[in-house]
Design a protein that fits this description.
Blueprint (H helix, E strand, L loop, with lengths): L4 H7 L1 H12 L6 E5 L6 H13 L13 H8 L5 E4 L8 H10 L10 E5 L7 H12 L5 E7 L7 H5 L2 E4 L5 H10 L4 H8 L5 H8 L2 H19 L4 H12 L3 H22 L12 H10 L2 H19 L4 H13 L1
Parallel strand pairs: 1-4, 1-5, 2-3, 3-4
Helix pairs in contact: 1-2, 2-3, 3-4, 5-6, 8-9, 9-10, 11-12, 11-13, 12-16, 13-14, 13-15, 15-16
């Protein structure tokens, strides 16, 4: 969880500037729709906005983090900040009805009220229509913050009543740092950022034994292509294909192979900062001695062609057999 606008500016500079300008000018919108992938900071933004609204000691737009209001918002216990999350698979009508009832009461310490609806796209039709009526009669002291990964699933009439702010995916370096801060090794963090810009997806992938085994198989295949060519067809039949059963899995295996050969190019160019397979430097050195830059360039083109064939529904095992034969030439 990002706890300050200073940190949020580094992660989401455009959206942060728009919201903090509104806070500074005391022109906070009655409703915001924060749209972005998992891990891009939607919940942190909503909480920061709430703290900036209620904090009595804020410095321009930055909440103090130490006052009673800031601490209660952090702990989820502020009486005038209401957070709605899906009840099971959806946000139901009675949840919105209860929220409306709460808002008929005067605020306990001021007339300001904030409500945050997480996964707003999961509202049932009746719940969405109830919320719409609520949004159509905005109070100057009420701020709604809707969070979603799929804004197009919301009623167009709801979207039209909100200021829509799109959060950008984390850049690779930001995501890599967050993964390392979460306890991942530099090597694991680096490789995961090549496959997703989504923090939650990257963390899930870091625990995925299938993905870990896929990485090992790629390294084993490359070693065989260098040292045990005669055993490659058996390896493809007995280990590669059983692991990469689905087309999307096979595409991911080829993506890993692309990353490996790009790493060999970076090794040739003495550019270690760009290498993804950080824990395989010795094997990358061996590969760079075995294949020239010209060889590697051809192999990358061959892998890309294999990916295209998979999309054209060419038989998967045939695609991989042809690929390995071409790399061995």
């Amino acid at each position: 969880m990002v706890n300050s606008w200073e940190d949020m500016f580094r992660q989401q500079p455009v959206v942060s500037k728009m919201i903090t300008n509104s806070i500074r000018k005391n022109r906070i919108s009655h409703a915001y729709l924060l749209h972005g992938d998992k891990g891009t900071g939607k919940s942190s933004l909503a909480q920061l906005l709430a703290k900036s609204i209620f904090c009595k000691n804020r410095n321009q737009f930055e909440p103090c983090q130490e006052c009673v209001d800031c601490k209660r918002i952090n702990s989820g216990n502020h009486p005038d900040v209401h957070v709605i999350t899906p009840d099971g698979a959806s946000i139901k009508t009675d949840q919105i009805a209860h929220l409306k009832k709460e808002f008929t009461y005067t605020g306990l310490e001021s007339n300001k009220k904030v409500y945050i609806i997480e996964h707003a796209d999961k509202m049932t039709d009746n719940a969405a229509n109830r919320l719409l009526k609520f949004l159509e009669e905005p109070s100057s002291e009420t701020t709604a913050v809707l969070l979603t990964e799929n804004s197009q699933s919301l009623l167009a009439t709801i979207r039209s009543r909100c200021q829509i702010l799109s959060l950008q995916p984390l850049n690779p370096k930001q995501l890599e740092k967050k993964l390392i801060d979460s306890g991942l090794t530099d090597a694991n963090a680096r490789i995961l950022t090549t496959f997703t810009r989504n923090l939650d997806e990257a963390l899930d992938k870091s625990k995925d034994t299938w993905f870990a085994q896929a990485r090992k198989l790629v390294v084993q295949l490359v070693e065989m292509l260098q040292n045990n060519r005669n055993e490659v067809p058996i390896f493809v039949h007995t280990q590669w294909m059983p692991h990469f059963k689905e087309k999307n899995q096979l595409q991911e295996g080829l993506d890993l192979l692309l990353v490996w050969f790009r790493d060999v190019i970076h090794y040739h160019m003495d550019d270690p900062s760009s290498i993804v397979f950080l824990h395989q430097m010795e094997k990358l050195e061996q590969a760079s001695m075995y294949w020239s830059m010209q060889d590697i360039t051809k192999h990358l083109q061959t892998i890309m062609e294999a990916k295209r064939k998979l999309e054209q529904n060419v038989h998967p095992q045939l695609v991989i057999e042809q690929l390995t034969l071409q790399i061995q030439r």
